[in-house]
Amino acid sequence: MRTLLTLLILVVGSLAQAEQVDMDAAEKKARDEFMQRFSTFTEDKNVVGKVRKADGKRAEGKKKTRFDQDDGLPYQSDLTYHDLSFNTIETEKAGDDPKNPDKKKVSRLFAFVSPHGGISAAGGSSQLERTSYGLHKKFSKEEEEDKAKKDDEKTGTKYRSIFKITTQEIIEDEKGNIQPAGGAGGAAGAGAAKQAGNEKKKEPEKVERFEIREEALPEITKVGEESFETIRKAGRDKDNQDDQTVMPNGLLLRYAAGEATQAMWNSTLANLIQRRVNRGVQAKNFPDTPQLSEGVPNCEAWSGAATSVLAKVKDEKDRKALQEEIKRMTEQCGQLASQSYNAINPKFEPGKDGKDELKTGDLKKEDSFVRDARVQLETLKSAGKDPRNVPSNWKYTDQDAKARITIEFDDNGAPKGEQEMTVKEQLESYNNQLREAATGYDEVKSRFPDLKTDPSAPLQYQIQSETKSVMEINQSANALLQEDGVKAGITNTAEDYKTLTGQSQQ
Q1: Helix axes 476-483, 250-280, angle to 10 degrees
Q2: N or C: which end of the chain has fewer CB within 10 A?
Q3: Does the structure show a pLDDT above 80 at 315?
Q4: Beta carbons of 35 and 54 less than 8 angstroms apart
Q5: 276 exposed, middle or buried (CB, 10 Å; 0-12, 13-18, 19+)?
Q6: Helix (H, G, I), strand (E, B) or coil at 16
Q7: How far apart are CA 423 and CA 261, in angstroms?
């Protein structure tokens, strides 16, 4: 009997051990499959960022083999945008003179209208580049033909290319302190100043704001919405990728959101500093100030390109003077590239001793694109911060803090509509859900008194406004992925251009 009992114990013990081994093997298999799925997911062209293995190391992935040199974003995304932060001159065939088929037409290409949009998809342009460029051509032609003239001097509003440009007057108090701009722009503002008895005062200074014009916004927004469909598909199980009723893996979608938010920061930072450099360095004899871009990603690259043209300068004295000026501008370029994103209007101005001095803090003269980029970075860095609380020369509104988001879905995962919310409102909605979850703990405790629960557990995840960056919040999924052995994800946010371009090569 004792022998039989011992045998029974051994058999049961062996079965339990076998079951544990099977469970461990199944768990390892599931973990390995998810790691492979994660890497495959990052290959999707519209999942922003480099293809990563689960251990965080880079991997080669289909079309995502080349990346921008200034912000590290992939070339082949539908939303890739090789923009220039300054106006350029575009030369193209006129095509309207049969006697001179090679006749060239020169026109202005506005800052932030990607010149890549003028080439085909086969040539490397993205859907967003072609869409914005096509709209630029359409509206520019209408402006030439005066068919869609919408300039309004009374409100200080005008339309150029894909932009709506609004003008406001700068307000100064008695002590000369700058307040956010406001009031009527254009002729109306000047007239109002006269009527107020200010005839002896010079006309108030004005600032501008460039926004995507109303007619262009739907087409540009559509590109973004359509690009998400490839991400949604890549997030589903392999056997259900084309099934619209199947929800994608939530962790993978959150990873994509984190990478997209980081990309927004990187591209905005690159544009901000590139335009600062272009505006903040003054040319004297040399015709151009430094123009940084994806193609010329740093000051050294610009210096090399600028120096190469000096071979055409025959006079040695002139050539030497130009070399000295290029050297000066290259050094100043480097100093501006090292400035933090939140520096206010850094630029070089002539000093008392004749040498240029780097000055900051002039809100009144801050360029409109630079100002908006700086304010956007400030609000990304401090989630929930109101743009009206960031020092600037523009009077932002409550609408500037809002974004369209979807927070409700039906049983099949389809969105149930959008609503506009500020980041602060989104955080409060999230915190309310945690408080509701804590209340649920109390209800469970009342039904099962012996169950060990901590009602306050959900509350530890609350996020107070302006205590974290949007990037940090949206990378929270990466921390969860790391619990499953995935080490890719967590990114350090660069705060100056030199650091950013160093990261883009990693």
Answers
A1: 140
A2: N
A3: yes
A4: yes
A5: buried
A6: helix
A7: 13
CA distance 78 to 72: 15
Rounded Cα–Cα distance for residues 38 and 49 (Å): 13
Rama region for 423: left / alpha / beta (φ>0; ψ in -120 to 50; rest): alpha
Q: Which residues contact 236 (CB under 8 A, 6 or more apart)?
A: 243, 246, 247, 248, 249
The two most distant CA atoms of the chain are separated, in Å, by 117
Residue 40's nearest CA partner among 201, 317, 252 is 252
The whole-angstrom separation of Cα 8 and Cα 173 is: 92
- E strands along 146-265, which residues? 157-160, 163-172, 178-182, 206-212
Which pLDDT score, from 0 to 100, does residue 112 have?
95
pLDDT one-digit tens code per residue, 462-483: 999 999 999 989 886 565 566 5
Q: Which amino acid is at 309?
A: V
* H-type alpha helices, 146-216: 186-195
The model's pTM: 0.86
Identity of the amino acid at 344: I
Residue that wins the pLDDT comparison between 241 and 506: 241
Q: How far apart are CA 427 and CA 29, in angstroms?
A: 37
Q: Which residues contact 25 (CB under 8 A, 6 or more apart)?
A: none
Nearest to 419 by CA among 408, 431, 434: 408
Nearest to 117 by CA among 91, 100, 135: 135
Q: How much is the pLDDT for 188?
A: 43
Q: Which residue has the tokens 């070339």?
A: 75
Structure tokens at 120: 């085909």
Contact 265, 49 (CB under 8 A): no
Of residues 468 and 486, more confidently modeled: 468
